[in-house]
Amino acid sequence: MERKIISKNFGVEDSWTLPVYEANGGYAAMRKAFGMDPQAVLEEVKASKIRGRGGAGFPMGLKWSFVPRDIDKPKYLCVNADEGEPGTFKDRHILENDPHMMIEGIIICCWAVGIRKAFIYIRGEFHKQCDRLDSAVREAYEKGYLGRNINSDGFDLDIVVHRGAGAYICGEETGLIESVEGKRGQPRMKPPFPALIGVFDCPTVVNNVETLAALPWILQNGAAAYAAIGTEKSSGTKLWSISGHVERPGVYELDMGVPLRVLLEEHAGGVRNGKKLKAVIPGGSSTPVLTAEEAYTVNLDYESLEKAGSMLGSGAMIIIDEETCMVWVLTILEKFYAHESCGQCPPCREGTAWMHRLLCKIERGEGTLEDLDKLEDIANNIGGKTICVLSDAAAMPAQSFIKKFRHEFEEHIKTGHCRFRDNKWTAALEGVH
Ligand SMILES: Cc1cc2nc3c(=O)[nH]c(=O)nc-3n(C[C@H](O)[C@H](O)[C@H](O)COP(=O)(O)O)c2cc1C
Ligand code: SF4
């Protein structure tokens, strides 16, 4: 079902400005939170059962509860606005259309956890979104919603907007923390988790833009109302990004648990040009691909997608039509992962590069069945052995594409020909810088 919680102000004239946000009820949830004990705010968020919208789906309230209450160190919030996962383009809509909803969410989070400084780590390419965010932060300071004594009871809060420089790995929470500290964006070993040792070795909460933007509604309407939306284990609404071979690509806010078929056909207008569906990557490029049959019967919630052998991830669907070569798609994806590996762990650094090279060979029509076995073997062996899960993110598409569309890989190898692309080899697919 369509329900506008996070996108309620999208399309409203000047929705990104403070006067318009306040005219539509903005910052009332912040006042309500200030009237509550911080622990009560945390309990409310726990009871809403909201899970992180950045990809991992970790329960938000539980994450906050890992941060030590009484500790003689500052605590920090890092807002993950890096949005680098291919297929995902929802956070940029929040930043562009309603940055105050996220800022209000940040204030609520910081009050609940006892944080006095928040960093918003925003993707460097988001120029327009960054300008709107900077201006919204300025407005909030001018209005006294940020800065000193913002609740008239001595609570201070500062926000620093930190622009990224184009590395996907800086979206991984510990890579992000390193980058905020001014270092090279390379993930850290976990444990310790950021809740204990994060920015400048201090307890740190990392939350996604969309996760934080849901907080004003949860505080205003109550945890029970939020938990009643969606399914038992996947509460609330979600901003679904849908792209690829679809009539109306875009961002749609629908309840968790909605059938994928409803999003694709009723909202996004179905597969482009009346073609048949071949496959769907359901949760961002790293999530295992679904066949058309699987996609047409799955619901969009954590449990259903897991049962179908995939993941909800960031809720970003890439629609692939019947005339698309799956070898070509996988080659594009693996080029991305090989390029974005930070290089710390040999299985990831070497494995992603090997997978990409083998795929280029198969795509060129020069591959052998041994190459396909080798590709599968690498994919089966790089995940779970590295500092972060980028290696798993690269392995899962390869494993699922080969498992479900093996015939296409074998046909390339046996005939040296691509029936979909007429062997239009694109040199751009080669070479990882
Ligand atoms: C390689 C990689 C890239 C990631 N990129 C992003 C990103 O761009 N945005 C994001 O919110 N989370 C991203 N994540 C997930 C974060 O590590 C983290 O789980 C998330 O920011 C936590 O926020 P949440 O609990 O609100 O989802 C990425 C994870 C990995 C492994
Ligand atoms: S798994 Fe890959 S991206 Fe992650 S730390 Fe290791 S080398 Fe870097």
UniProtKB/TrEMBL annotation:
- Domain (NADH-ubiquinone oxidoreductase 51kDa subunit iron-sulphur binding) spans 327-372
Q: Catalysed reaction(s)?
A: a quinone + NADH + 5 H(+)(in) = a quinol + NAD(+) + 4 H(+)(out)
User: Pfam families given for it?
Assistant: Complex1_51K, NADH_4Fe-4S, SLBB_2
Which cofactors, by name? FMN; [4Fe-4S] cluster
- Entry annotated with the keyword Zinc: no
Q: Which SUPFAM superfamilies match?
A: Nqo1 FMN-binding domain-like, Nqo1 middle domain-like, Nqo1C-terminal domain-like
Sorted alphabetically, the Gene Ontology BP terms of this entry are: cellular respiration
* Keywords in alphabetical order: 4Fe-4S, Flavoprotein, FMN, Iron, Iron-sulfur, Metal-binding, NAD, Oxidoreductase, Quinone, Translocase
Q: Does the keyword Hydrolase apply?
A: no
Classify the source by domain of life: Bacteria
Leading EC class? translocase
Annotated GO molecular function terms are: 4 iron, 4 sulfur cluster binding; FMN binding; metal ion binding; NAD binding; NADH dehydrogenase (ubiquinone) activity; NADH dehydrogenase activity; quinone binding
Q: Name the Enzyme Commission number(s) assigned to this protein.
A: 7.1.1.-
InterPro entries from the UniProt entry: ComplexI_51kDa_subunit, NADH-UbQ_OxRdtase_51kDa_CS, NADH-UbQ_OxRdtase_suF, Nuo51_FMN-bd, Nuo51_FMN-bd_sf, Nuop51_4Fe4S-bd, Nuop51_4Fe4S-bd_sf, SLBB_dom
Q: Which PROSITE patterns match?
A: COMPLEX1_51K_2
What does the sequence similarity comment in the record state about its family? Answer: Belongs to the complex I 51 kDa subunit family.
Role:
NDH-1 shuttles electrons from NADH, via FMN and iron-sulfur (Fe-S) centers, to quinones in the respiratory chain.
Instruction: Supply the name of the protein.
Output: NADH-quinone oxidoreductase subunit F
State the species of origin: Eiseniibacteriota bacterium
